[in-house]
Amino acid sequence: MRRQSNLTRHLASAALVAVLAAGLGGCQTMSDVTGSIASRPDPAPDDPRRAAEVYGERYRKNPKDVEAAIAYGQALRMTGQRSQACAMLEQATITNPGNKALLAAYGRALADNGNSQAAFDVLSRAHSPDNPDWRILSVQGTTLDKLNRHDEARRYYASALRLAPDEPSVLSNLGLSYMLTKELPKAEETLRQAYASARADTRIRQNLALVVGLQGRFAEAETIVKADLPADEAAANVAYLRDMLNRKDGPRTASRAAPVVAKDD
């Protein structure tokens, strides 16, 4: 029941938000994506609510503690407090001007909260042309896709791939971009390239299953979505896949698919 509750919570908030998704953990289903473009201190409490308490107290004691601010923001996002994360991280960037890791976390929070243009602008300040970060470039691409600026988004993905060739998280986001413009064969080709990587994870498999299903190959899509999952999770994922495929807006259901952000090492 707990896994199903987590699934429901995550699916309710799934959306093509810039960067793809956030957090300190969570179910690996067709949902918001876990991961971060900013570092976080270790060890971190496993429970996001406990993490919010721990890092919130640490941040309030010392607003100049950048690591605490980033971890607090991640925990707030994971517990659904996205507006609060934006407000806190905005203040933290004022207190710590020019800190690029903090700007990256703030941009990520804005993306989570649906503020795509603001997220793009903030993320542009989180790295520089002479020292670009492929993770941030990929996240900026997802914000541009959310703004329906797909050609621009793909230029950002291309730049990210020049820095990190064959990176599956970037390829997956590029595949979703093609899905949004109904270029389904190209989307499938790109997502299969991402899925072939040893670093590919469940989120990429779910995105591939969606684009295969959107082309009418439902049995193949279900086989992909169920692979290597426990029976209850497989059933939940298949049900969600069928729900999206039955929607009348066709490939625009990609707006509920999962952008992928590379996890920190």
Automatic annotation (TrEMBL):
SUPFAM superfamilies reported in the protein's UniProt record: TPR-like
Entries under PROSITE patterns matching the protein: PROKAR_LIPOPROTEIN, TPR
Gene Ontology MF annotations: mannosyltransferase activity
Biological processes annotated in GO: protein O-linked glycosylation via mannose
First and last residues of every TPR repeat: 134-167
Segment forming the signal sequence: 1-21
Keyword annotations of the record: Signal, TPR repeat
InterPro entries, per the entry: TMTC_O-mannosyltransferase (IPR052384), TPR-like_helical_dom_sf (IPR011990), TPR_rpt (IPR019734), UCP035836 (IPR014596)
PANTHER family (UniProt xref): PROTEIN O-MANNOSYL-TRANSFERASE TMTC2 (PTHR44216:SF3)
The protein, known as: Tetratricopeptide repeat protein
